[in-house]
Amino acid sequence: MARTSTAQRIEQNADQNSAESTDHRSRWADWWLTVVHDKKAFAGLIVLTILLMTAVLAPLIAPYDPNAMEYDMMEPPSFKHPLGTDDLGRDLLSRIIYGTKISLFIGITTVAISLSIGVVLGVVAGYFGGWLDHIIMRYIDLQWAFPNFIIAVYLVAVFGTGILNLTIAISLAFLDDFARITRGMVLTIKKEQYVSAARAMGASDYRIMRRYILPNATAPIIVQATVSVSYAILAEAALSFLGLGVEATTPTWGLILAEGRSFISRAWWLGVFPGLAIMLTVLSINFLGDALRDFMDVRESRGLI
Amino acid sequence: MELTKLSSLFEVEDLRTQFFTPTGIVKAVDGISYTVDEGETVAIVGESGCGKSVSALSILGLIPEPAGKIAGGSIRFMGTDLLKLSDEEIRRMRGRQFAMIFQEPMTSLNPVLTIGRQIRETLQTHLGLSREQAMQRAEELLGMVGIADAGGRLKQYPHQLSGGMRQRVMIAMALSCEPELIIADEPTTALDVTIQAQILELMKDLTHRFDVALIIITHNLGVVARYADRVNVMYAGKFVEMGTALQIYHGPKHPYTLGLLRSVPRLDHPRSERLIPIVGQPPDLTRLGNGCTYEPRCSFRVSRCAAEFPPMQNIGDGHFSACWQYKEVDQTTRDRS
After folding, report:
1. Nearest C-alpha of chain A: how many angstroms from B190?
2. Cβ contact (<8 Å) for B107 and A192?
């Protein structure tokens, strides 16, 4: 990506080398520079910031109460209702604005949870191998044998409905992908000579995993994470649609989309706008993820090779 | 710790390391014994696959289990038997008491951490230095191994350094905690010829300066002649000849050593002389008979060689050879020169 900015990168590289760079703070500065120089990532960052602000400020910016019903049902977009109304006469724009909070929360939280658990399982299984690997991976295989969504349905059935349970269910349903990808990376990285060299210099297992293996395995994990955010938002939608997610009155993008599905031939706006919201979110997270991945790969982001 | 005064810094006795493979047990190291004194440089010489590297990994306790196992012998370091230590105890000694320099400098450094961080963290773990102290020490170390602008280099990533420079960093890391012993596994093989001598000079200089013992594993006899005090020639998991560098270079007493010397060009011999490569391949380590392992390739062989492995015989002046025919080998060397 961003082939055009190679010159900028080299320039940036020179800046970084001459600049005082003592570990932590400058890492953030470098990350910031990478994002600013990468147009797509920058756009992603802006969109995501707007979405986050929307989520926080929903009561202030929404023109109507998301659950207030009016007689003008299924109105197409107009000045009064910029995105139209749904079958119960609720303002679509307000519902989407309120929905931002829950959809973003579920999308990001579930990925954060399943990434943390999945990556730890994958690293432990791949690094130690043996019986530990067998136990972890047989469980992961078991989970892998079912579609993630079915697992989520099953877990919600066990835990019960509600946002918290939904979050836990989706997180657990998605962790096998992270575990599997991480383990695969660990298996190749642990054979690298720098791992042997670290061991020969007396590094402990924990240090080797933390400093040598994990940082070298980040690229595919980040890619998986950005993809999973979109799946998680959609999983929430699907579960809510089946009546297994949040309550029917709660505005979430998925639920709005699901409800609008029955009227898609008569009211296109009910499908298009929540869909656009999901797409924008996913796209901006993907762009940011790409930049993060490039940044993590020191060889590429710092010029050379 | 009694008797430590009498013994050497480092003593390997009858070390046996084996690997279990579907085709049988590979006796990668089959009963080698040697000593290294303080500040001494000892070379282990042999062809690829003769067990040199495995013998080094055995010392550090880095033989991958359960595929491989140290089946017997002892490795005494300053009087303690390393094979009797727990994993945790030996881990603490690695880097602190003995360090290792690997063959491939291009892949021996973690690509995602800066050079400074890698050296610093080793210093912090082993010596308990603060971050600032460790950073300062790292800078001194880089200066010591001849890296210009050490402060700037510390902030760079491994890919920004050349191979020779990376090997210097590895040497700096190995020396960082002032170990008593450094094991260098083919430290110059992957480097440009012009850099090789520089790196070896640097290692020799620094090991002398800090009185660090060095075990240098190599197949390059030029390295041996110039930099080692003593030499152990290894073949198929066993030592076949041991002696000082001069003894080995000028008066080999084992046909294998002689073969190695004859198969490389030498500047101190007339150029018209033909190189004589060693015929055949090293033996399959899963099927070793009772006889001498070198017998099938040896031009000095007699009937006794196939039946009985020759013991290490003391030839005098600390020179040992495991060959029934060492007198004939010696005679040939004398005739030629």
Report:
1. 14
2. yes
